[in-house]
Specification:
By secondary structure, the chain is mainly β. It has 1 helix and 32 strands.
Length: 387
């Protein structure tokens, strides 16, 4: 009898130990939701438009398996801006009520900062927590983590471009006055490059320090790290889409005529793909090299690195897809559509889930380290969707 009781206790202890090991294998410190072999700590935080300076829009965490709204935060205007998620969990996003908002991880307001114009620009968070963004009041702002202003730079036109932050802390951002700026973190100008028209797209940074910029002057620019011109190419159409840099250095972006481009780091065009209408959406790059982007022709496209169409997904509606997609570590693609739905697609292009916001969704999604997806909507709300 005693031996049987001891054996039962031993079995119970063993089962508890196995259960704890399974839990430890599936969970991570801080509630992080990662795939096996995930990237470094810094790569898990979506701190700028496009996730990283190369704008791959690919996260090393797994997103939600179902469209459960954890919370909804109301602003006072339409939201074009896309969110950034700081390492402390704070979500930053701009609104057309002229405010930049800091939202706590539980969906409550942390603070707001008022500018003198609508905010289309998406914020970027530096390593020290400084938040950089532009406003249609013609200014570029840097805020401290507590919401106080660190510095402000006045341009000659609206600033719809979003900031990209280099490894040394340099802040790169465009302006509708046709200039591209590189700022030191303290607000001093490192260099300035003048294009021939508005720059509303976001600069992308290659690992070798090359800065790639697209603009409404129908050109693709490659700038050296010191701001001098490396080369430029005439594309033949206005460009709103921000470039993405693949691991092999290939540049991807779309144009207003519905043509999607691939260029080598030397400026040679590799291939083009024709959609049926304007491409404002910036591309996302899957782990296998697949390129995803939306078009005003209502389709989300998946292309191979050689430019072959793998599949396309048609949304229900007539207003198209301006939102730039995000890809999680399982290959799920997240994006908003102007038919008032937000989507999650499986890697084969079939629907994983969708839910309705009731208004257009131009804002591009960002994934938090726990897998929560954040995005804004024309209904003035910021959504947090997670398991």
């Amino acid at each position: 009898m005693l031996e049987s009781t001891a054996m039962q206790r031993l079995i119970r202890c063993w089962l508890i130990f196995v259960a704890l090991m399974l839990v430890a294998a599936g969970c991570n410190q801080g509630g992080e939701k990662r795939c096996p072999g995930s990237a470094t700590v810094s790569a898990r935080y979506w701190t700028m438009f496009g996730h990283n300076p190369q704008h791959t829009r690919r996260s090393p965490v797994a997103g939600p398996s179902r469209p459960k709204v954890k919370w909804r935060f109301e602003t006072g205007g339409l939201i074009y801006s896309s969110p950034a998620v700081a390492p402390d969990g704070t979500i930053y996003i701009g609104s057309c009520d002229d405010n930049l908002y800091a939202v706590n991880p539980d969906g409550t307001e942390k603070w707001r900062f008022a500018t003198g114009g609508d905010i289309y620009s998406s914020p970027a968070v530096g390593a020290d927590g400084t938040i950089y963004f532009g406003s249609r009041d013609r200014s570029i702002y840097a805020l401290n983590p507590d919401g106080t202003k660190r510095w402000e730079y006045q341009t000659n036109a609206c600033v719809d471009s979003s900031a990209a932050i280099g490894g040394d802390g340099t802040v790169y951002i465009g302006s509708d006055d046709g200039r591209v700026f590189a700022f030191h973190p303290d607000g001093q100008i490192k260099w300035m490059f003048r294009t021939e028209w508005e720059v509303s797209s976001t600069p992308a940074l290659a690992p070798d320090g090359t800065v790639y910029v697209t603009g409404k002057d129908q050109k693709l620019y490659a700038l050296n790290p010191d701001g001098t011109l490396k080369w430029f190419r005439e594309v033949g159409a206005v460009i709103y889409s921000s470039p993405a840099v693949a691991p092999d250095g290939t540049l991807y972006f779309g144009d207003r005529e519905g043509v999607f481009h691939a260029y080598t780091p030397e400026g040679d065009e590799k291939w083009v793909f024709a959609a049926e209408r304007t491409i404002i959406s910036s591309p996302a790059l899957g782990a296998d090299g697949t390129i995803y982007f939306g078009s005003a022709d209502e389709h989300l496209y998946a292309l191979s690195p050689s430019g072959e169409k793998l599949w396309s997904y048609k949304t229900v509606g007539v207003y198209g897809i301006n939102s730039s997609p995000a890809v999680d570590c399982e290959g799920t693609i997240y994006f908003g559509s102007n038919n008032s739905y937000f989507y999650a697609l499986k890697p084969d292009g079939t629907t994983r889930w969708r839910f309705q916001t009731g208004r257009w969704n131009d804002s591009s999604p960002a994934l938090g380290p726990d897998g929560t997806v954040y995005f804004g909507s024309y209904n003035g709300s910021v959504y947090a969707v997670g398991d």
